[in-house]
Amino acid sequence: MVKKLKRPIAQCITVIVLITSSQLPSQETKDTGIVARAVADAEADAEKDINRITWLGCGCIFTVYTLGAAYLIVPSPKQERLMGKSYDYVWAYTQAYKSRRRALQLRYALIGTGISSVIVITALVIVVSKEGKDGECCTGPDLSCGLEGCGSSESCGSSDGCSFLDGSSGN
Amino acid sequence: MRDFIFILIFFVTFNDVIYARILKSIQIDFEKHSREKDRQEIIKGTVYFQASGKIVVFVREPVNQWMIYRKDELIIYYPVEKRGFCFTTRFPPYPSFFQAFLGAVKEDYGLTDIGYTLSNHEINADTLTTWWNPPKRLSKQLGNFILVYVSNKITYAESRKSDGSISSKSFYDNHITHGVNYFPLKISTVRYAEADSSLENIFYNNPQFNINLPDIVKNFKLPSDAEIKKIKW
Asked: How close B63 comes to chain A (CA, Å)?
């Protein structure tokens, strides 16, 4: 009698275990789907909300300070976007939005800082090279100048030697 | 950012002064249909508004969710799961979709209160069109505003960016009266964006003005066993 009862109970347990185990992955998939959707939505919204020009401009003007601000000041998503969304979605969305928004702000601030750095370095190179040129000997094809450098009212040409800035030849 | 500034000023200045005089409370059901890029959603629920500024939104579909807007915090609570979030904010939180409904209380949509000045108007039979300039201090963020009234009912609102391009267009329909005010029960809004524009249709129904709101709305308290995550915004 006991043996007869044991078999159906064991079968029932097996069926329950099978059903439970088959449901577990589908629940997990559902949760993963919600989280993936929330992350995708958050990233798209962060891309849409960010003011690129502001962060680029601030990066250009305030350089490294902007990088600090870009990291610390992260606006929140619009509250209305959380309406009608599940708990898991809201949690994933808020985290992903802030993370993406911070990354984008840092990227544009960094680009701005890079642009201003390039401008400053280029300006420095021009100034230094100009100062260097002032001391060079300007030698034309006929070496007629024979000067250490062109005068303030002359420019130095590679083939013509010194010429006056008003266009007339200095030779 | 521009929309945020506008709505924030609008809501903060408008809330206590005007509504307290005209409206003590509102209970209204809503259906919000929105479409943006590949996202499409329908949200159904009820809004409870108190003149003190407290707003509670009970969402029934697609999930059971309560949103409680207080002075400096937004609570999102899931009664079935007994868990939720408490977002603390620097500025008063607000359900912006409801702002358009409340805006109908004022003849000028509350634009004067936030510093807009009337630049032009035109009357054609029963249609009044008004053009508004933004306050000078915010002229870099905000653009002009156009309002159209037909038989004293607001039917169209258009907001522009500071560069003159259209930011959003709202169409108001199915008006009802409460006292001397007309409230639109259908509001369609198109918001223009660089990448993708969005379309939002809000249908209100079963409005009840100045009623005694349910106790759960007036004295909402989170259950002691609720699992609440606190997030600073």
From this structure: 6
Taking CA–CA distances from A88, the nearest residue in chain B reads B84
If asked whether residues A58 and A92 sit together in one domain, one would say: yes
The phi, psi pair for B72, rounded to 5°, reads -130, 25
Give the number of beta-carbon pairs within 8 Å between A and B.
52
Residue A15 lies in a domain: no
Q: Are residues A39 and A95 in the same domain?
A: yes
The 10s digit of each residue's pLDDT in A58-94 is 888 888 888 888 888 888 888 888 999 999 999 999 9
Inter-chain touch A76–B89, beta carbons under 8 Å: yes
Interchain contact A79–B (C-beta under 8 A): yes
Residue of A nearest to B4 (CA): A78
Q: What is the CATH number of the domain that holds B142?
A: 2.50.20.10
Overall domain count for chain A:
2
Give tens-digit pLDDT for B141-193.
789 999 999 998 999 999 998 888 899 999 999 999 988 888 999 999 998 87
The reply to whether residue A78 touches residue B65, judged by beta carbons under 8 angstroms, is no
The answer to whether the CB atoms of A79 and B74 lie below 8 A apart is yes
Q: How far are the Cα atoms of A101, A112, B6, B15, B124 from residue B12, in angstroms, in the given order?
A: 27, 35, 10, 6, 34
Provide ipTM, 2 decimals: 0.80
Pair (A121, A141) in one structural domain: no
Determine the structural domain holding residue B77 and report its residue range. Answer: 2-232
Residue found under tokens 């007339």: A168
Measured distance CA(B181)–CA(A56) in Å, rounded? 47
